[in-house]
Amino acid sequence: AQSVTQLGSHVSVSEGALVLLRCNYSSSVPPYLFWYVQYPNQGLQLLLKYTSAATLVKGINGFEAEFKKSETSFHLTKPSAHMSDAAEYFCAVSDRNYGGSQGNLIFGKGTKLSVKP
Amino acid sequence: KAGVTQTPRYLIKTRGQQVTLSCSPISGHRSVSWYQQTPGQGLQFLFEYFSETQRNKGNFPGRFSGRQFSNSRSEMNVSTLELGDSALYLCASSPRGGPYNEQFFGPGTRLTVL
Fold first, then answer.
1. A80 and A18 in contact (C-beta within 8 Å)?
2. ω into residue B8 within 30 of 0, thus cis?
3. Which residues of A touch B10 (CB under 8 A)?
4. Which of A46, A74, B8, B43 would be a feasible disulfide site paired with A107, CB 3.0-4.6 Å?
């Protein structure tokens, strides 16, 4: 069964600093991986997704993630943090079997990002 | 296009009652999924509906049920509410569902069980 581990429930960075949010996955089939962001009192918004094309995936708001099969990782980065990036970030893997149609998401526990001025 | 809408946004119920939550997907989307979000368990998948049929189900008791109508709108019902059912319930829609299709989330319904 697929699973996702996010290292660090809270990450704090200074404005302008590098943002690095860690995600490791476990999957018995080639994974489809996603990063979502959740602002307070809102639903989830997709930042980016990996579906076995390019290993470096660029998303919205300047975020990108690199799929590393050897490390089973899909870490999220942004070169320079903005105050508006403060939110909770969720890594997710699509729960599927080969040829399966199901695509429900299995989420990590989330990482709350704080940005200090 | 309008996004995913969920009603009501907030709900307060007492133990033993039942509740129905509603979700209207993005126009043209045929797959609707429901998730429960709690501080302790995080985001957990409840079920997915596609063309009025439940296609996938998570590990929740039978008190949690859902349905989808011909216009793709979906409802979920929780009977005999327990304190532990207090959570944010999120609905997500997708054009066809499936493992690589993006899911678009609504703002959620915050359910409080007293």
1. yes
2. yes
3. none
4. B43
- What does the alpha-carbon distance between residue B46 and residue A104 come to, in Å, rounded to a whole number? 9
Chains A and B form CB pairs within 8 A to the count of 69
**pLDDT digits over A23-42, tens only?**
999 987 778 899 999 998 88
* pLDDT, tens digit, 9 for 90 and up, residues A74-89: 999 999 999 999 999 9
Residue of B nearest to A44 (CA): B105
B100–A49 C-beta distance less than 8 A: yes
Q: Where are the beta strands (DSSP E) in chain A?
A: 3-7, 10-14, 19-26, 33-38, 44-50, 56-58, 64-68, 73-78, 87-94, 105-107, 111-116
Please judge whether B45 and A106 are an interchain contact, meaning their C-beta atoms are less than 8 angstroms apart.
Answer: yes
Q: Is A100 on the interface with B (CB under 8 A)?
A: yes
